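Re-run with default settings, no changes from the original entry. Doing this only to confirm the output is reproducible before filing.
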Amino acid sequence: MGIFSAGIEYFVNGGPVMYPLLFCSLATVSISVERWLFFRAGDSGSEFTRDFCSAIERDDWKTAKGLAESTHGVVAKLAVTVMTRHGNFERLENFVSVRAERAIDKFEKNLNYLNVIVTLSPVLGLLGTVTGMIGSFHSFNQRMDNPIAVTAGIGEALITTVFGLCISIVSICMYAYFMRRLKAVSLNIEEVGNTLLEAIAKNLDGEPSHQETMQRRGTDT
């Protein structure tokens, strides 16, 4: 209860700028939790990418498809969709490119807000400090008999800077963590997509054309 009361006291002493700082802190926590849950559900993992690409390179499509169907996440879902899709290679290549971009956009959602909070929080803290110090020096003449009161007012003004820096530090850590995971997901999507397209193109090159098939049938007869 003492810690809670001390926190309320610091918040009140910080002035009106503490309210937007409180919003920034709540936004950081909300975005971090939401993104963590999304990455947990949407990331198929590097292990899946390694095993799936290895099966495709061995031309073991049955194992690869079973692995993709039994794995959760955006990358596995994209692999299943590509393997079951019919059409020419050029359209399939465009399809994979568009789906990969959409998947990455989903992982990037709300991360820009964290980047904004990283810059905004210290600026808000500095604003609160400056306005607090202006108020302290404005009443300096009235406090000549008690200079300690002026020092206390400056100390209270610095509260917003401390809160702003703390929020910014947490936001930087979370932003860096999610950007690292986003890079890993992007590489996995790119590796799975390129492996599938190369394997499909290789199989199409190895298949005889319709004219060659008719000529072989004519020769056999």
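Residues 2-206 form one domain. The chain has a mean pLDDT of 80.
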